Amino acid sequence: MAEPLRILQVGAGGMGRAWLRNLVSFPDAVLVGLVDLDLDRARAAAAEEGHPEVPVARDLTLLAAETGAQAVLDVTVPEAHQAVNTEAMRAGLPVLCEKPLAGSVSQCLEMVATAELTGQLLMVSQSRRYWQSLVALRDQLGQLGEIGTVSCEFFKAPRMPGFREEMAHPLLVDMAIHHLDLARLLLGADPVSVYCESANPPWSWFAGDAAATAVFAFPAGQRFTYTGSWVARGLETSWNGSWRVSAEHGTAVWDGDHPPIAFGDEGELPVRLGTGGQEIRGSLAEFVQAVRTGVEPDTVARRNVWSVAMVEAAIASTELGGRVLLEEVLESAYVEAVRGARDPDVRDVLQSWPSVQQGLAAR
Description:
Its EC number is 1.1.1.18. Keywords: Oxidoreductase. This is Myo-inositol 2-dehydrogenase. GO terms for molecular function: inositol 2-dehydrogenase (NAD+) activity; nucleotide binding. It is an enzyme of class 1 (oxidoreductase). By secondary structure, the protein is an alpha/beta fold. It folds into 2 domains: about 5-130 and about 280-300, Rossmann fold (3-Layer(aba) Sandwich); about 135-270, Dihydrodipicolinate Reductase, domain 2. It has 12 helices and 15 strands. It has helices at about 15-25, 40-50, 60-65, 80-90, 105-120, 130-140, 170-185, 280-295, 300-320, 325-340, 345-350, 355-360; strands at about 5-10, 30-35, 55, 70-75, 95-100, 120-125, 145-155, 195-200, 210-215, 225-230, 240-245, 250-255, 260-265, 265-270, 325. The chain is globular.
């Protein structure tokens, strides 16, 4: 049996604590160190979440060397992801990064180029992909033929004092990436364009637009419609959203919490629930397997850039008031990444790509 993968976690905030709890009983990985700018917070989090003896420090590279870390788990705020991930990969360590990979597509592209330069794995934790009922939905869709339309409705009314309530597009930036990423997963493709409108109802406690509706077009003509609100009191949906998929031989629905229901030409389809870990536990399991086997995970950074680009394109559409092509968003971000890259080696990698889409394609 293989030894547990030695993990160095960076970030001891709220989500960091969730990962610390996850690592307590995870059989294939062990926490060997915790990095945070606030050492008192890090020590308290480690002690309270089951890791009282784990060393803490502010310096990622130094603590990684001292503990013999084999991988880094980045659970910092999104604004810090690029710096943390770059330092880890430069130190020769693969990285599992909490979503979103970065606050902009251009930053994502720089990190993809850094991963290519260093030869290190950079994977994004899109934890909702690992819900067992979602695995069952994908299985059912495989029996329904070509997909025509996918829709997701998301209605919640959370109170989130702090930066989220001050954002210009809180729903699209902080929440929708989960659902947009799942649409890519279910359709097995990346979108071509989007038209989006956002708004902020009069009763909203958010400063920016807390509601939005977007229609994404995919290469084979499929449409994904997303409608969401963070100020929708009463009859709330699951955090995973409420889904409906119309396909060649039937329809499937999923309420986001319970097993999906699907009917095909021969009647109701059986439900085969996934057996792997759910949410961040499933994400960590795939990361460990990828590190050990070299098999590229579904949410490797170069693929996950498309989910970030969907968010950026939706925001551009609502601000410009028209349809936005994903290709244009990627090209604009690529130009910005080349211009803004501080590391000349990273810039050289970016400039070696025949096109941004080819740079993101499988090697």
